[in-house]
Amino acid sequence: MDYEAVIGLEVHAELRTESKIFCGCSAKFGAAPNEHTCPLCLGLPGVLPVLNRRVVEYAITAGLATHCAIAPTSVWARKNYFYPDLPKGYQISQYELPICTGGRIDIEVDGAARAIRLTRIHMEEDTGKNIHDGETSLVDYNRCGVPLLEIVSEPDIRTAAEAGAYLRKLRQILQYLQVCDGNMEEGSFRCDANISVRRRGSETLGTRAEVKNMNSFRAVEKAIEHEIARQVDRVEHGERIVQETRLWDPDREETRSMRSKESAHDYRYFPDPDLLPLTVSREWVAAVQAAMPELPDARRARFVAEHVLPPYDAEVLTARQDVADYFEAAVRAHPNPKGLSNWVMGDVLRLVRERKLDEALVIRDWPVSPQHLAAMVALIDDDTISGKIAKTVFEQMVASGDAPAAIVAAQGLSQVTDSGAIDAAIAAVLAANGDKVAEYRAGKDKLFGFFVGQVMQATQGKANPAKVNELLKTRLAG
């Protein structure tokens, strides 16, 4: 294509605080309409905002994790506009002097690494929610005052795939920090995309359109792809791109015009007279940094180096902090990282998905404890049970919650390693299948698998597979 896209993303991340940013109302999601409100939320006269310290700490944490500079002084601003979901007629935000500037998010797409620069991270309050039902419109002010971080990227993104990678990485970081749950469906992680196109090789920016109403990574990627195609088509036909805000229509899979795009001067920003400039000391920043958890990139690299895992395993296991924690708890109980990785990535996460145990975005009710999983892998490693028997043991662990050793003992599932017992089973199988023995010895080597299966069936799956293979080869060679 002779054109390239220039994309910048604005992400609003709702912070996981108990109370709102400027008052003591609950910030919890899901309450009855207008239940979590007070005179300050509703913009009534005579009320004064009081800043929530935890919001500032979360902003500092996010800034440090994304390589931002933390401003020693930042200023609150009023963003003025009139809309039913904004009862004060302005939104308290930050404009000229935000708390975090610069920074980057490192991504990888199709094996190519890129750094997407950040312009800023700033704090602000959320607005209410308009609910349209036919000819009636209602407003729920529960969300008014819920603390947000607005994270603004530079226009460094060129494709929908890069946008998706950037958002996934940003959400992963915020979830590791436990400052945002990242739930796009509930609106706690929202993205607006600013998109323009230009001739490849040109340094001149085209006219951009802002796209809203995208509540999944797939929606973001589809909306960007559609908007790029729409703008290229207009340019190719000699039509002018209009600066506007557009909505993504997921049913028609297209963007449609919503309103002309505002500029910063339209909001008449000015410093909020009710809030003092925010001062952040070096000591405060240092204390926040000391309390930060290991971040996903560092943890992934450590899993490869310390646990000697393939990069793919490390990527899967560290995609979520709770999965990485579960895996490491299992490794502490039994040091076989690769064996445990296979089980976590396979049977454990399969059950998590099937049973929807991660609906709250944190897996609290695991199918089995990491200690029980480790004990089961230990039984495989010391030849007490085979990998096949382990599948049965795992199912019993999930159903009963019992320890694997207890299940093996109660059901007599221990692996048969006695050469005499296995050899007797082999002799019986070969005697019952003399014609196939003759065929095998005549060169039909593929029958070896048949004999293994028959011996395993005769021993109810308890025979040690390595022993079976060894003794079978000796018998058949004779």
What does this structure look like?
By secondary structure, this protein is an alpha+beta fold. The protein is built from 15 helices and 17 strands.
Note the topology.
Elements: E1 3-14, H1 53-65, E2 69-70, E3 73-74, E4 76-80, E5 90-94, E6 100-101, E7 104-109, E8 112-125, E9 129-133, E10 136-140, E11 147-153, H2 160-177, E12 189-199, E13 209-214, H3 217-236, E14 244-249, E15 254-260, E16 270-271, E17 278-279, H4 282-290, H5 296-306, H6 311-318, H7 321-333, H8 337-354, H9 370-381, H10 387-400, H11 404-411, H12 419-432, H13 434-441, H14 447-458, H15 465-477
Parallel strand pairs: 13-14
Antiparallel strand pairs: 1-11, 1-12, 2-6, 3-17, 4-5, 4-16, 6-8, 7-8, 8-11, 9-10, 12-13, 14-15
Alpha carbon gap, first and last residue: 68 Å
Q: What share of residues are in beta strands?
A: 15-25%
Q: Count the helices. How many?
A: 15
Q: How many strands, which pairing sense, and closed or not: the largest β-sheet?
A: 10 strands, mixed
Computed over alpha carbons, the radius of gyration is 30 Å
The chain-level structural class is: alpha+beta
- Shape descriptor reads elongated
* Helical residue percent band: 25-40%
* Average pLDDT number: 92
Give the tally of β-strands. Answer: 17
Oligomer: single chain
Provide the low-confidence segments as ranges. none
